[in-house]
UniProtKB/TrEMBL annotation:
This is Uncharacterized protein. It comes from the Eukaryota. It comes from Rhizophora mucronata (Asiatic mangrove).
Length: 32
């Protein structure tokens, strides 16, 4: 959920938020 908070802060730049969301998903997959 932290990645969602970051993407919300960077929500002004939709592309950056999308990249952060992908990065967050990548980290979650690494933890699994």
């Amino acid at each position: 959920m932290k990645s969602w908070e970051i993407s919300k802060k960077v929500g002004k730049n939709h592309e950056n938020a999308k990249l952060i969301e992908i990065w967050g998903t990548y980290v979650i997959n690494q933890i699994k």
